């Protein structure tokens, strides 16, 4: 055997050991089951367990040593603070162990970007974390889940994915959790990466990276969720013509610790909205101004904190985390400029 291995060494053929990738399942359409194989809507999300997901793609064992854990099994509109905190804590425990090289999280696509961005801000490791979902249930003809899962495991086990922050893999594309967003209700190519592009792609069975995420993430943020059992309450208020002030009053009266506005255009609100924002800020409730447009940067605002290019749902995640550290609006503003 020793002479064989030395010949293999000479030829550069020594067997590389497979990476250890853990799959944490939370439900969603990737684990969805419909009554017929042509049904792509009206199915039950989160119906299939993690072992069945793994067994459906036997090729996974060619690229990684896999094990699975069921964290939840719900449609992603039902992912809540408990699941977010459980997930972030579990990811941090697993990644601190030498025998975990990367993590894949299976998730519904509806709120995938919120969980991915939460982890992007709270994971304390450089090891790859990949969030993956599917648009067609597991029972559908041409279900996209199996290939998405295969690609996600490949990306999570790759040395070149280290230090990139939390990644989202669907439809052969690799995006940063900071930028990626669901942009279409039903189509397979629903995940887009703002207008600044994806980090890379999987093509010809290989991972190709072209870009880096320059905003700070994971080990560079101050957020530590290890002892947290709840998160501050942050509500999103949608801006429109005749937006009434009672939305703000209702949020404040129901204990909001912070408010994100999904304003029009560059974060604008009606004069009624702007007036009430001033009052809310005077009460000590920080207000972050995001936009309902879905693309672009909300620039500096004298009335509240600009969300930068974070959409309202991601601005909410960052404001919740910011409030676990500080209530100083200048520090919160700095987080929105850096992350
Ligand atoms: N495609 C999907 O995963 C949608 C599903 N309703 C979910 O988010 O759980």
TrEMBL record:
First-tier enzyme category under EC: hydrolase
Species name: Aureibacillus halotolerans
Keyword hit for Nucleotide-binding: no
Domain Asparaginase/glutaminase C-terminal: 233-336
Annotated catalysed reactions: L-asparagine + H2O = L-aspartate + NH4(+)
SUPFAM superfamilies: Glutaminase/Asparaginase
Ligand binding (substrate): 76, 109-110
Protein name: asparaginase
One Pfam family matching this protein: Asparaginase_C
Domain L-asparaginase N-terminal residue range list: 20-213
Keywords, sorted A to Z: Hydrolase, Signal
GO biological process: asparagine metabolic process
Active site residues per record: 29, 109
Assembly and binders: Homotetramer.
Listed Gene3D superfamilies: 3.40.50.40, L-asparaginase, N-terminal domain
Family, similarity comment: Belongs to the asparaginase 1 family.
InterPro entries on file: AsnASE_II (IPR004550), Asp/glu_Ase-like_sf (IPR036152), Asparaginase/glutaminase-like (IPR006034), Asparaginase/glutaminase_AS1 (IPR020827), Asparaginase/glutaminase_AS2 (IPR027475), Asparaginase_C (IPR040919), L-asparaginase_C (IPR027473), L-asparaginase_N (IPR027474)
Listed CDD domains: L-asparaginase_II
GO molecular function: asparaginase activity
EC number: 3.5.1.1
């Amino acid at each position: 055997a020793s002479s064989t291995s030395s010949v293999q060494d000479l030829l550069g053929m020594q067997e590389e050991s497979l990476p250890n990738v853990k799959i944490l399942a939370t439900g969603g359409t990737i684990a969805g089951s419909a009554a017929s194989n042509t049904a792509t809507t009206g199915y039950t999300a989160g119906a299939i367990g993690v072992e069945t997901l793994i067994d459906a793609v036997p090729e996974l064992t060619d690229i990684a040593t896999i094990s699975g854990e069921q964290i939840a099994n719900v449609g992603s509109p039902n992912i809540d603070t408990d699941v977010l905190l459980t997930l972030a804590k579990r990811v941090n425990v697993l990644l601190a162990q030498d025998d975990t090289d990367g993590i894949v999280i299976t998730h519904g696509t509806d709120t995938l970007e919120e969980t991915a961005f939460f982890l992007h801000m709270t994971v304390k490791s450089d090891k790859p974390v990949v969030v993956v979902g599917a648009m067609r249930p597991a029972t559908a003809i041409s279900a996209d889940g199996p290939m998405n899962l295969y690609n996600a495991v490949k990306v999570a086990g790759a040395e070149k994915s280290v230090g990139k922050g939390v990644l989202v893999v669907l439809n052969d594309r690799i995006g940063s959790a900071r930028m990626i967003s669901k942009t279409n209700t039903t189509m397979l190519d629903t995940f887009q990466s703002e207008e600044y592009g994806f980090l890379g792609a999987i093509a010809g069975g290989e991972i190709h990276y072209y870009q880096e995420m320059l905003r700070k993430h994971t080990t560079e943020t101050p957020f530590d969720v290890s002892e947290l059992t709840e998160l501050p309450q942050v509500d999103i208020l949608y801006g429109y013509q005749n937006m009434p002030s009672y939305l703000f009053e209702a949020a404040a009266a129901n204990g909001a610790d912070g408010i994100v506005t999904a304003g029009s255009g560059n974060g604008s609100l009606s004069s009624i909205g702007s007036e009430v924002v001033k009052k809310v800020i005077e009460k000590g409730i920080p207000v972050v101004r995001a936009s309902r447009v879905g693309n672009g940067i909300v620039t500096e605002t004298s009335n509240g904190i600009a969300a930068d290019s974070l959409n309202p749902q991601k601005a909410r995640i960052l404001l919740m985390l910011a409030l676990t550290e500080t209530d100083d609006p200048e520090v919160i503003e700095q987080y929105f400029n850096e992350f």
